[in-house]
């Protein structure tokens, strides 16, 4: 039997036809010689044949949510057999906001492709390549620290880091605790770096950045040196953006939106657009979005708000139907691209019956 050849499609430098890629990905993930034990096991429980019956991108909505198996299955069960000869993947986890964290595999193939995209986007946005870059985001089991280190190397920038522990802070807040001492601890660490280094780029969360700006000496230092600011994690509302943009008038500000479940962030259609006007696209055919009614999971009309559903298709990972803990306004995807574009993402108040706690992240 001839095995599917999805890696050749994934690694191609030429444009990939979305429909061709969809069917190749289904054959790859549901053929015993190339698929993972996880999906080959789950296929036996489905009431349809993934290769024969999934004929369009919309049909991916027939798959069940894969969250539960990703919480407790061994990593060996997640690795497709077709990648057995590749270098071992890196394993990262979701934040565990709504239950036990889920595990995702970052293969070398995917990491290389995502790095190429992301560094190109940063350059297009006006990232000051070569200038010191300060990142205050989660590392540890989270992917953000790993990916930003690779991006910094590619951009020729020295990377300074301050680690966040969003799981601990969210547990603290959920239990009625006060996150202010932890925020002060982070500010002390960041303040030392800002006072002693000429920081040209900064990636952090809106609550942390607004706290930094309350310190006049830190705000002055950032106004003098900062040329690029990426805000991620906690929701960035328009009032907070206006405050930040007013305090840092010479700085390009991006709002980053993404998910560990699709192993990347969304692509800003216009990298230089201010966050209130940002339109977020996927990376078809590898990462696509849909905006659906939270009750019946059908698409909402364009221009209306619904729950975000994300899909990831690559040789290492198959996440066909992941409902996120966010809503967004549905916009048309670029011509020829499957799925939807997004604007104005916002967190749900509750997800899977649990309140969504943002904290400092």
Q: Can you describe what's shown?
A:
The chain has 13 helices and 17 strands. With 361 residues, it is α/β, with parallel strands linked by helices. The protein has a six-stranded antiparallel sheet. A five-stranded parallel sheet has the order 4-3-5-6-7, with helices on both faces. A hairpin with a 2-residue loop joins strand 16 and strand 17. Helix 7 packs across helix 8 and helix 11 packs across helix 13.
Produce the secondary structure layout.
Blueprint: H1 6-11, H2 18-29, H3 37-43, H4 50-53, H5 67-72, H6 75-78, E1 90-93, E2 103-106, H7 108-125, E3 133-138, H8 144-155, E4 159-164, H9 166-174, H10 180-196, E5 201-204, H11 206-213, H12 216-225, E6 228-231, H13 238-247, E7 252-255, E8 258-259, E9 264-265, E10 267-268, E11 279-281, E12 287-292, E13 305-313, E14 318-332, E15 340-347, E16 350-351, E17 354-355
Parallel strand pairs: 3-4, 3-5, 5-6, 6-7
Antiparallel strand pairs: 1-2, 8-9, 10-11, 11-15, 12-13, 13-14, 14-15, 16-17
Helix pairs in contact: 7-8, 11-13
């Amino acid at each position: 039997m001839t095995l599917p050849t999805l890696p050749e499609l994934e690694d191609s430098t030429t444009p990939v036809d979305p429909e061709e890629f969809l069917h190749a990905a289904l054959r790859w993930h549901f053929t015993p010689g190339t698929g993972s034990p996880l999906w080959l096991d789950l296929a036996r429980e489905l009431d349809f044949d993934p290769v024969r019956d999934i004929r369009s991108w919309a049909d991916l909505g027939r798959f069940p949510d894969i969250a539960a198996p990703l919480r407790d299955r061994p990593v060996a069960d997640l690795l497709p057999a077709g990648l057995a000869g590749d270098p071992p993947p890196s394993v990262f986890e979701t934040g565990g906001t709504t239950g036990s964290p889920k595990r995702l595999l970052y293969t070398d193939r995917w990491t290389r492709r995502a790095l190429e995209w992301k560094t190109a986007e940063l350059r297009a946005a006006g990232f000051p390549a070569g200038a010191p870059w300060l990142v205050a985001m989660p590392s540890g089991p989270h992917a953000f620290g790993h990916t930003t280190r690779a991006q910094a190397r590619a951009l020729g920038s020295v990377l300074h880091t301050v680690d966040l522990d969003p799981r601990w802070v969210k547990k603290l807040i959920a239990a009625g605790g006060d996150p202010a001492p932890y925020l002060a601890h982070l500010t002390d660490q960041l303040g030392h770096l800002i006072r002693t280094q000429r920081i040209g780029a900064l990636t952090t969360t809106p609550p942390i950045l607004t706290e930094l700006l309350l310190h006049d000496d830190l705000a002055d230092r950032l106004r003098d040196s900062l040329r690029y600011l990426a805000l991620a994690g906690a929701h960035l509302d328009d009032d907070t953006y206006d405050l930040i943009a007013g305090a840092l008038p010479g700085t390009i500000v991006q709002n980053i939106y993404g998910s560990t479940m699709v192993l990347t962030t969304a692509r800003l259609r216009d990298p230089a657009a201010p966050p209130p006007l940002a339109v977020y696209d996927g990376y078809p055919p590898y990462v696509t979005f849909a905006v659906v009614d939270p009750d019946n999971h059908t698409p909402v009309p364009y221009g209306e708000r619904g729950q975000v559903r994300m899909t990831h298709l690559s040789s290492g990972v198959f996440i066909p139907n992941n409902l996120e803990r966010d809503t967004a306004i549905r916009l048309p995807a670029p011509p020829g691209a499957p799925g939807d574009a997004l604007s104005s993402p916002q967190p749900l108040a509750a997800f899977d019956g649990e309140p969504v706690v943002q904290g400092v992240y």
